[in-house]
Amino acid sequence: ISGCNPDLASMIPSPSWLPMRRRSIAVRLATSALLASSAILLIAAWILTTLYRENTERAFDSRLLVYANNLATDLVSPNDPESRSFTLSDPRFDLPLSGWYWQIGRPDAKPRDLRTSRSLVGVPLKAAGTPDTKAGIGQIRQGYGRAQDERRLRIIERDVDLGEEGRYTVRVAGPADEIENDVDRFRFSL
Q: What residues have CB less than 8 Å from 98, skipping those under 6 apart?
């Protein structure tokens, strides 16, 4: 065909499975590189966002754990557990329905027997997760829950054994939207 008349070469039928006009290899390589790069960037962004969320949750849990440890320290003081005063220096625990809550009570306590922050009005905090009967004293449990205003909360809790005085659960919660806002800002900048 190379030595043939150009008009004759155009008359030879091409197989039906070949496109009429072939794209150049440069266009095909650029398209496949663009698709592969986009897929890799999306997967990398998802992985980085997941890692950032875990790190943000750990940092938030650390803040909540400081509050829980302060309350546990007040609980262990030499006074009677029922007459002890519990305070945290953060004023958000005094604002009603602020999203920042704490409560202390026996694991099977009725709501009227719980000691709570001023911000916790009405319904007591639910457990951070499913109750684990094998959980050891001092073990930290964390999870998500809902406040009475349906706000999503990050909750951390631990059990404290006072010997003859019994076992108490210290539970502290903060608004989970702080975690979500940090992750959303990271995702947007990413």
A: 92, 119
pLDDT tens string 23-46: 688 888 899 999 999 999 999 999
Residue corresponding to tokens 């010997």: 163
Among residues 128, 131, 129, the alpha carbon closest in space to that of 174 is found at 128
E strand residue ranges, 5-112: 101-105
**What is the distance between the alpha carbons of residues 61 and 132, in angstroms, rounded to a whole number?**
19
Q: Which of 82, 124, 119 is nearest to 99 (CA)?
A: 119
- The chain-wide mean pLDDT, for the chain, equals 80
Torsion of CA 108, 134, 54, 44, to 10 degrees: -140
With beta carbons less than 8 A apart as the criterion, state whether 101 and 173 touch. Answer: yes
Are 136 and 39 a contacting pair, CB within 8 Å? no
Q: How many residues are present in the chain? A: 190
DSSP state of 164: G
Q: How far is CA 74 from CA 81, 88, 104, 172, in A?
A: 9, 10, 11, 14
Buried b (16+ CB within 10 A) or exposed e, 51-62: ebbeebbeebbe
Count of CB atoms situated within 10 Å of the CB of 149: 10
Tokens found for residue 70: 């302060």
Global pTM?
0.72
pLDDT band per the 50, 70, 90 thresholds, residue 64 = very high
Predicted local distance difference test score (pLDDT) of residue 2: 53
